[in-house]
Amino acid sequence: MSHPLVALLAILGAVALGAPAAADGHPRVVSLGPALTAILLELGAEELLVGVDDRSLRMLPAVEGQPRVGGLFNPSLEAIVALEPDLVVLVPGAEQRSLQERLEALDIEVLALPNTSLSELLACIETLGERVGRLERARARVAEIREAFRRAEAESIVASRPRTVLVLQRDPLFVVGGGSFIDRMLFAAGLENLAGGFESPYPRVSVEWLIAAAPDLILDASEERESALAYWSRWPSLPAVVGGGVVAVAALELTLPGPRPDAALASLRALLPERSNASGDAGAAR
Predict the structure, then answer these.
(1) What are the boundaries of each domain within the chain?
(2) Which of 42, 129, 253, 271 is most buried, judging by how many CB atoms fall within 10 Å of its CB?
(3) Residues in Cβ contact with 111 at an 8 Å cutoff, skipping those fewer than 6 apart
(4) Beta strands per DSSP E along 9-57
(5) What is the CATH number of domain 8-113?
């Protein structure tokens, strides 16, 4: 990742002078990720935001007009430092490691918040809430999410679960694997995630794998999801095609690890046919 240090002396000078503290004592925040930005908005901390990544600007109308600091995976160090933040929040990853080290070398606090699994996402909401002075609101949101998943899982104890694949991208083909909050959402909705055995939360698979898996339900969250039925009908033997189980789903609502996975779960359940609440082996906890 390239970060040309334009006007480095000016940047270092700004850091040496120190960033002005927010009037209420809360930090000036730069958010590098739409999921984190959405959580800050949900917690009522929008006034603390002083900059966001490009993807947040595209996906979240509420931050329109915020200073941009570059792409999610290639943000500009100079743009971030020029905003004089007290805190930069990001999701840890190989692409962000160098940036985090550079920011910390400039004495800028970086909060790296993993959010792949449901437990990580809930911890992310609570940790971020605590850091920006919204802990009570964050805890309330987390409690609501926990209760929604508990209730849904109790109601989805069924004798058989539709064999499901959730498609994130078609070419190359990426699906939802095991360990992610979406995997947990599928389980809570009463579905069997056929890719749940993959170690990667979002594995790349082949069309041949999907055909062999023979899903009853294909949830298509790809950018081309509006043409889902026409696309998957290219393989007419798929049980999902034969049985009318190809469903286009709203990608942003369902796949963003943001502050409302409970709402995404409710939307997912609303797409599914009613099933009797019969007990069976499939309802056992994983």
Answers:
(1) 8-113, 158-283
(2) 129
(3) 87, 88, 89, 90, 127, 128, 131
(4) 29-32, 49-52
(5) 3.40.50.1980
In this prediction the pTM is 0.85
Instruction: Output the CA–CA distances (angstroms, integers) from residue 118 to 62, 94, 180, 206, 219, in the order listed.
Output: 25, 21, 7, 27, 20
User: What per-residue confidence (pLDDT) applies to 28?
Assistant: 97
Tell me the two tokens of residue 120: 């990580």
pLDDT digits (tens, 9 = 90+) for 241-267: 999 999 999 888 899 999 999 999 999
Alpha-carbon distances, residue 19 vs 15, 16, 24, 42 (angstroms):
7, 9, 14, 26
In order, the DSSP letters of 106-173 are TT-EEEE---SSHHHHHHHHHHHHHHTT-HHHHHHHHHHHHHHHHHHHHHT--S---EEEEEEETTTE
pLDDT band at 78 (very low <50, low <70, confident <90, very high): very high
